């Protein structure tokens, strides 16, 4: 009598090499075992139920598999016939997992096991799996399409806890959909932070219910004379939630006491009498505006603004800007930063500010955002503070690639794709110990760009290199090795309709 149980199919895979997969960022350690896991319609995903976040991560993977391959893979809901190959996403407290974003993946013939301490770690591991799924199925190994994933083991954890990019939505406004598209790409490359530069001289972009003219008046302009725009609180919360689903934290920035023309135009009492009189600004100049640091009403205004924004922001940080306050006297600037630091603390956030803030007396919980002066970054040592590394000469996404770049500025120099990659955030500021470095951020100022296509032209492919500088150990930072893996990102960029600058430094395939 024939057995009613179908025989499990043995596929013989061509030899694979997991260590040669073009992963970005490059994992801490990869061990190849030469065989493969065949992703197909008979695959099911199971997740830990010890933490609700894990099932969400499983569903995210299932959606991504569907959009890449068309396969519909159940999560914690296998039906008969879908138990041939399993992907487990498992909560683990193993001591081998170093930190909340660490993960390990074991890929065998019949199973993939992804272990992480937290859902954030599992999410980072899922990005690695997404990158390992080939664009095309193999239709010759068996009677149905399978996507061949090389077998082996990946042990991975980030070098820095903070890996971010900044989007300036003030000089030009970007819609919720445009911001979400950027967040999707950040997630794919394991970034965990998006800093939104929400206000500047040319525009105020976030609704403050207690001060409605900020958006009514201050939101109605941008560089070049366009109509501007702003996020309602509902829209801002939607961005925060969308990022959180991808384990990305939003850091809001209200830039002050300079870069405040749009705020002072909306409410003239904010304006310092010595600074330039507020008017609609559509030019690119900086350093002419200032809040009146001597008025109590300015600080009660800021208490309202910071209160409303922090109430919508679950992350630990609030960025106060503090850069280029050339129209504020130094003593007034110092007093201002110290008073605003108290307000930020009152709202239970850690203050972040551009490196000029070190002139004030800072709490050790406050974070210094290095962009131009190493001597300011070094103040972190005395102060016990952490530093975010955004050296303009290396990490500014708004610098032109070369003299023929379509968009961008050049005040910090040209930044070709290799120069953007060839530096080490851990040693860039001489004598600044790595324990003082929170991580890396690549800011994208928007004076010269106003939509996703232009934004992407400047961000890609340099952003992908910053992902690796933030995540991978310094021993792995090697341009010749990286540029091959970068070239292999094209199918992803094309599938996501992400525009990129096709630099001649890379052999695009
Ligand atoms: C400097 S970097 C600025 C911004 C400009 C940018 C343009 C920094 C903290 N301030 O106001 O948009 O240069 O590259």
Automatic annotation (TrEMBL):
Residues 160-473 form the Glycoside hydrolase family 20 catalytic domain. Residues 22-156 form the Beta-hexosaminidase bacterial type N-terminal domain. GO terms for cellular component: membrane. Keywords: Glycosidase, Hydrolase. SUPFAM superfamilies: (Trans)glycosidases, beta-N-acetylhexosaminidase-like domain. It comes from the Bacteria. It comes from Flagellimonas marinaquae. Its EC number is 3.2.1.52. It catalyses: Hydrolysis of terminal non-reducing N-acetyl-D-hexosamine residues in N-acetyl-beta-D-hexosaminides. Pfam families: Glyco_hydro_20 (PF00728), Glyco_hydro_20b (PF02838). The active site is at residue 324. One of its GO terms (biological process) is glycosaminoglycan metabolic process. This is beta-N-acetylhexosaminidase. GO terms for molecular function: beta-N-acetylhexosaminidase activity. Belongs to the glycosyl hydrolase 20 family. InterPro entries: Beta_hexosaminidase_sua/sub (IPR025705), GH (IPR017853), Glyco_hydro_20_cat (IPR015883), Hex-like_dom2 (IPR029018), HEX_bac_N (IPR015882).
